Amino acid sequence: MSFYTPSVRLRRYTQLTPALLREMGIRGIITDLDDTLAARNVFLPDEEVSAWITGLTEAGIKVCIVSNNHKKRTQAFSEPLEIPYFYEALKPSKKAILKALDVLDLPLQEVALLGDQLFTDMTAATRCKIKGILVDPVGSYGGWFVHFKRKLEIPLRKKIPYDFE
């Protein structure tokens, strides 16, 4: 279980405020896209996501999106936010996370990976030796493989308490 266990568990990404990040010693966020910031069938960032990203960047928090989705989807979502992004990441592979770490140019202990899945996002964080912040998925549009993984995650998630309620 420890390989998948996040450093922090929240209900939504919006709970991750600049103040909380400062308290955690985090100055950079690598965030998943699908079901973390928006449902898979939402192609552009809404006002809430835009305001959250703006709030982080204005507070000096660096942000980068790393998605397993394809270029067209990731680019369309990320470019209006004016933040760097990597697509087809194949998480839990470390390759795209390491590229994002290079872009953020921060010590590992000052970076966290935000995501909604234990087997991809939290495993990638563990493999890259950065904090993992788990959120509940915001959508349910995923394909059969995502649904399959979510069913496997249920008993593991039940053992992980929420922080900062």
Would you kindly provide a brief summary of this structure?
By secondary structure, the protein is α/β, with parallel strands linked by helices.
Strand percent estimate: 5-15%
Low-confidence parts, pLDDT < 50 over ≥5 residues?
A: none
- Report the order of strands and helices: EHEHEHEHEHEH
Determine the number of helices (DSSP H or I, runs of at least 4 residues). Answer: 6
Please give the radius of gyration in angstroms.
14 Å
CATH superfamily: HAD superfamily/HAD-like
Architecture, CATH level 2?
Answer: 3-Layer(aba) Sandwich
Residue share in helix? 25-40%
Please report the first level of CATH classification, the CATH class.
Answer: Alpha Beta
Overall 3D geometry? globular
Spatial gap, N to C terminus: 23 Å
The structural domain count equals: 1
Strand order of the largest sheet: 1-6-5-2-3-4
Oligomer: single chain
- CATH topology type: Rossmann fold
Give the total of beta strands. 6
Helix/strand class: alpha/beta
Largest sheet, if any?
6 strands, parallel
The average pLDDT score comes to 93
